[in-house]
# Entry
Amino acid sequence: MFSFLKSFTKFEKIILLTIFVVYIHNLFLDVMAVDAAQYAGISAEMAQTNSYLEVKEFGKDYLDKPPLLFWLSSASIKIFGSSNFAYKLPSFLFLLFSLYALYRFCILYYTLKIAKYALLILATSQAYFLMTNDVRTDAILTSCVIISCWLFGLYFSFGKIKHLIFASLFIGFAMLAKGPIGLVAILFPVGIHLIYKKEWKQLFSFQWLLVVLIIALVLFPMSYGLYHQFDLQPDKITNGIKGQKGLYFFYWLQSFGRITGENIWNNNTPWHFFIGTSLWDFFPWFFPLLFAVYFKIKQLFFDKKASPEIISFVGFTALFFFLSLSKYKLPHYVFVTFPFAAILVAEYLSKISIKSMKNWIVVNVIFGYIILALLIIYPILFFKENYYLIIILILLQILILFFFRKKPEDFIIQYISPVLILNVFMSFIFYPKLVTFQSDAMAAKWMKENHPLEKVALYNKPSHLFNFYSQNPFNKVIDKEKLKKYNEKIWLYVNEEDLKDIENSNLKIISKKTFNQYRITILKLNFLLENKRKEVLNYRYLIQIDQ
# Structure
């Protein structure tokens, strides 16, 4: 499998190694609230209860995301223990396989140069760095989509039934990762490709019945669990709805209901929402992507023979359009389109003129100066520490900007290098500092390190992060009335309002530890600025009550 690395130059291998090091380091960073923390908590709970067919959250019925991430991460937690690494490892392995599949897909239809470009482009997109850190269901979905498309490409080219079987398996895995979008994201571009190529025998082959059968077998365990957990219990109230049907929710409401309006989730995002978020999520390749889409459209209209496949074009443009129709959007929903986008950009960059390359080098230099400015002001205005590592990164960025020879043939390397500096900075400096403001995780770690044998409870509401880092998915949640009846010492994790309430009661607080709290997935300038941070921070507390 790793023999393909022989096609890369020594410098390209250094870049790949640097990317890999950042990915690996991201595996050990703390899980971020809200989604990743919830999924990590559910996975840890599943590892304890072995309730795989009926997914539970805090011991109650869970009906939202499909279970593949929970199954894989809970198995990893059973092997490696409850840790950041164990939770993130399965998704990371899928992402590595997706990069290999992308390379092989491009080799199937394009040149070696385009294959290498596509791999480097996707691997250095901010979305891929993010998915190795803030692990949600999108990593597995994105990976399964491009892997399945590659396997279908192999099947169409060589006719081997094993490729069709494995392509079908990964459709099933994609649906187990995030629902019917996995089916649409694969079969729609593949089907349009067959129509475009006029492969009517492939399109109307009876072997598609085998695809349906394999997908059904992969989905059977989840479907069986949903049916028994929800459909057979019409009096059960789930997510505030009586008689919620699990199968209908998974196969229609959760995905298509966001377009039809049947799903109540609506965050009033505009149709162009993903265009704005992709500026960062597909950085630094977003602007070349705009030109690449235009280049591909011209090619399809005026030089059809030059386009060996249309899976990548349809996979990006159609999916991007469909996802934009959703009434509820979050930035990571569009990550599934980025492997296709990487192919489009790679093809475009491999065919542009020397003059155009020089223009993109200018754009890259501007990015490089912005990153250099960020590195310089970070310890001055934001977090005043890690000086030595930041100085090293500043020197490296200066070296790249001023002394790295800018030959057109080295374009892709030049475009990547400043971005690697940025992500080394984020992985080794910025994110480790950022996660210290997740009070639930910090409090659980402190409790486990300093009072591992003493009783602790959460006041009024549960916490996925606290449970995950205390390595106990069944921490008690107690309210004021239960606390009054408690007749022994106990630690409580409370917020500021609850602390005041307890202080005004007859309960005796004998110890108190304070933790900074900020929702780090929604960053604002006042939080980042050192002299403004206290104005926006909240606080959480571990207090010991003596009855």
